[in-house]
Known about the structure:
Helix 2 (51-64) runs parallel beside helix 3. This protein has helices spanning 5-10, 51-64, 82-88, 224-233, 241-247, 249-255, and strands spanning 25-26, 37-40, 73-80, 96-102, 118-123, 141-145, 164-168, 175-177, 191-194, 197-199, 215-218. By secondary structure, it is an alpha/beta fold. The strands form 2 sheets. The chain has a 9-stranded parallel beta sheet with strand order 1-2-3-4-5-6-7-9-11, covered by helices on one side. Strands 8-10 form a two-stranded parallel sheet. Helix 2 links the parallel strand 2 and strand 3 (73-80). The chain has 6 helices and 11 strands. The protein starts with a helix and ends with a helix. Helix content is 20%, strand content 20%.
Amino acid sequence: MNLTTSQITNGIWLFNDVADWDQKIIKYPEEYNSEERIMLDFTQLRAARNYKEEKLLISKWCDYFTSMTNLRYLYFECRISQQIFDSICKMTFLEGLFIKWSTITDISKISDLINLKHIHIGSSPKISNLAPLLMLQNLKTLEIENNTQLADLSLIGKMSNLEGLGIHGSLWKTQNVNTLKPLENLINLKYLTLYGTKVLDQSLEALNSLKNLQRVWVAPYYRMVEYEKVYKSLPKLAHGNIIEIVTSEDYRKQMNIKG
């Protein structure tokens, strides 16, 4: 199934759409009622009286995950450890996984998530190898935040089935990438977001050949001519700040974009 117009415009992880998401946050396994989409928050709990209590709760969840066979989309509002991640990777029925932030170092077991279509890996700077993502043959959207491995996008450029891609910095740190050139291969992309990301070769030219792009958001680091070329080259472009940069002088002043 291709991305819907709403998913292209707003992304997969839109939480004010009550038709798609129940915003109830679950802390304990017994609160799960066979929903297809849930948000979990069970680490760093203020209610946990001590470390031992939280450790027992994490162990309980890790044992419970594989029984949640009706679940399709899982959003973590809390920090994820390697133990939790490895347990999630046994949930072969998952189609979407959102990790807000983590201490994960190894994602090799992600290849077991054979039905995964959408993944967001929030701030996880300790992940040293992103290559296992190439094993996700059904993946349609990928968002990664704050990871040093993203400096070289060659691996991401091999994921030709992607329809949505986000390469993001964190609130505290800009994400640097050497060049966008590897993304020229992603001809199926319908949206691209580069929040808090700086391209070190100062070029957006690679985007000009991605004719299916409908939404593009880039940070205000580049010469005006770069934005103009993207705007003129993408016939389906309808959303994102590229349009505002090119058409609105007030927006350019606000973002301090100069010629």
